Recover the amino acids of this structure.
């Protein structure tokens, strides 16, 4: 505090900073650096003047050696050394105010010490550390899960055993198509229809459970609770138009700025987005992390790369277009401190804000309501594995690091991470306070996004099914079956939907071509099974979403519910596209473009 007085901070401002520090459990200096009174550049330049040391606005990265030590300077940047062949090494520090008297005493005792010391801002030190170790960290982010736990990595699309059985299945299908008898086709029809029915019944059970059990109210924190540091990671790529909205949404988070660590993770060659970010004066608790163009160009690689610099005990993921509830972080923290330690992740509900735009966004909103406000809370209640959504996941940071973070080769890293957490003995639960998102409104963009999701779900299923017995043992039989019905069932229902429609048409044609008295019992039974499968899929889809929606949301669905059959056929097209891409470009990330819903002042 004495140092702040020496550099000219007014007593009234100091009094306010002291109150904030006591309330937030921080130091007066930390509160000062996150207020708008003085930039960090000016503050550390004044500290350099007090110590009579040189102040460095930029560091020559060619004079910094890359080592494991550098990684410690990403989260808590304070010291870095410069090596030059023409002179002794220089230690660059970002000193805390409370350490200044000790530094001054050392300088008085050893004047030559001053020649080996310089001052820089924490951001300058962190930027240099990010840049110097970029290649090493990018390679580690791309390969660490594969090297540590290859059985959990999607880098290998199919194991030798899976490839053998896949080839055998394809060969049998081709052989059967050529040589199949009527009895064979009847058997295939029966098997596929019953598989489809199994996924339908599972969703029906989730619907009944959700209707019976209303969600609990969100947990709250007392006003006197001292909050920890919370890291917010936002992977942003080719999203220049949405930057002002993103910054505005992040500024609305109801959490002390001195306890926030917001990292905007960008590809280093995304010049347009970086220009949009640099055009805004970002608060001191915002940091732009540049991801090198190495390894897979995916969101999970970028997040894993940025995780090395996370300062928070807790961490949340948001997408660039997200508008989270301002109190979502507080609800998550309250939930974590009340939950048992094995609860490692909390999923906030995603709500579609543009439900009224057109029939695609309306049915997308219906689907999201079913998943995030119906299915996931039900699975959480029964302590089953949760296939997480790609955003608004809140983690205990130490556990996230412990299990290897995200798989950079899985294009639905969220679903994979939820399953991997469960297999490691952890659980995921759900929150109440939502995050608003916008759904795609064009079929082309929707299919591109959905095909990526299906490809990632296929990757997740294939990874877990490399060793089914081990998965059964680690998850437990009930959870293993739930996984098969949820992820496997989602894939089966999407892939088989056109086939069931064809079977229904063929059976109906065969029945109409015969007198009523000559229709075999088998054809009658299969007709009703297929009809129930098709109509049941549409009705359960509508009922699951409607049961979770508000009255206002349901009004926007209205006549658009009649387009559910078209929506399902689009889903099937996306699933088959994903099957092809799994072979041709398994790690390709089909980027979903976004536009701002409103201009938010940054």
């Amino acid at each position: 505090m004495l140092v702040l007085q020496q550099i000219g901070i007014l007593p009234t401002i100091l009094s306010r900073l002291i109150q904030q520090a006591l309330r937030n459990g921080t130091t007066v200096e930390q509160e000062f650096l996150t207020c708008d009174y003085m930039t960090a550049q000016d503050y550390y330049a004044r500290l350099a003047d007090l110590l009579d040391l040189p102040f460095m606005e930029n560091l020559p990265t060619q004079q910094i050696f890359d080592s494991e030590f550098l990684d410690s300077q990403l989260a808590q940047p304070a010291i870095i050394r410069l090596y030059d062949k023409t002179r002794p090494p220089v230690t660059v520090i970002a000193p805390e105010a409370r350490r200044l008297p000790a530094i001054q005493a050392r300088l008085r005792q050893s004047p030559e010490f001053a020649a080996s010391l310089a001052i820089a801002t924490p951001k300058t030190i962190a930027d240099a550390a990010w840049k110097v170790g970029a290649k090493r960290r990018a390679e580690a982010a791309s390969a660490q899960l594969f090297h540590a736990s290859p059985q959990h990595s999607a880098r290998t699309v199919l194991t030798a055993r899976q490839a053998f059985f896949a080839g055998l299945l394809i060969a049998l299908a081709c052989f059967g198509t050529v040589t199949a008898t009527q009895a064979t086709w009847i058997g295939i029809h029966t098997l596929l229809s019953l598989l489809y029915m199994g996924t339908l019944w599972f969703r029906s059970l989730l619907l009944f459970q959700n209707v019976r059990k209303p969600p609990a109210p969100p947990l709250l924190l007392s006003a006197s609770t001292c909050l920890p540091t919370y890291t917010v990671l936002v992977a942003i790529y080719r999203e220049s138009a949405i930057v002002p909205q993103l910054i505005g949404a992040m500024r609305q988070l109801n959490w002390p700025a001195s306890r926030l660590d917001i990292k905007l993770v960008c590809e280093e060659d995304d010049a347009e987005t970086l220009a949009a970010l640099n055009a805004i004066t970002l608060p001191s608790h915002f940091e732009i992390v540049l991801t090198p163009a190495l390894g897979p160009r995916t969101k999970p690689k970028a997040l894993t790369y940025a995780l090395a610099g996370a300062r928070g005990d807790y961490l949340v993921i948001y997408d660039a277009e997200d508008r989270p509830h301002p109190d979502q972080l507080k609800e998550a923290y309250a939930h974590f401190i009340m939950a048992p330690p094995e609860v490692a992740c909390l999923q906030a509900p995603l709500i579609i804000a543009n439900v009224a735009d057109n029939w695609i966004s309306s049915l997308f909103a219906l689907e999201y309501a079913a998943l995030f406000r119906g299915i996931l809370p039900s699975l959480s209640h029964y302590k089953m594995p949760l296939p997480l959504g790609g955003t608004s996941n809140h983690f205990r940071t130490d556990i996230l690091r412990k299990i290897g973070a995200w798989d950079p080769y899985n294009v639905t890293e969220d679903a994979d991470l939820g399953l991997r957490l469960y297999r490691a003995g952890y659980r995921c639960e759900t929150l109440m306070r939502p995050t608003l998102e916008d759904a795609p409104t064009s079929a082309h963009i929707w299919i591109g996004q959905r095909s990526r999701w299906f490809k990632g779900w296929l990757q997740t299923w294939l990874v877990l099914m490399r060793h089914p017995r081990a998965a059964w043992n680690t998850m437990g039989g009930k959870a293993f079956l739930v996984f098969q019905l949820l992820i496997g069932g989602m894939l089966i229902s999407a892939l088989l939907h056109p086939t069931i429609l064809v079977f229904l048409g063929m059976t109906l044609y065969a029945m109409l071509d015969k007198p009523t008295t000559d229709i075999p019992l088998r054809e009658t039974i299969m007709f009703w099974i297929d009809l129930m499968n098709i109509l049941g899929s549409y009705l359960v889809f509508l009922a699951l979403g409607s049961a979770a929606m508000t009255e206002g949301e349901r009004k926007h669905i209205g006549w658009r519910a009649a387009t559910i059959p078209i929506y399902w056929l689009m889903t099937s097209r996306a699933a088959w596209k994903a099957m092809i891409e799994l072979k041709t470009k398994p790690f390709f990330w089909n980027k979903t473009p976004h536009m701002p819903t409103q201009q938010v002042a940054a």
Notes: The chain has three domains: 1-28, 39-135, 170-214+226-602. The two ends are 31 Å apart (CA to CA).
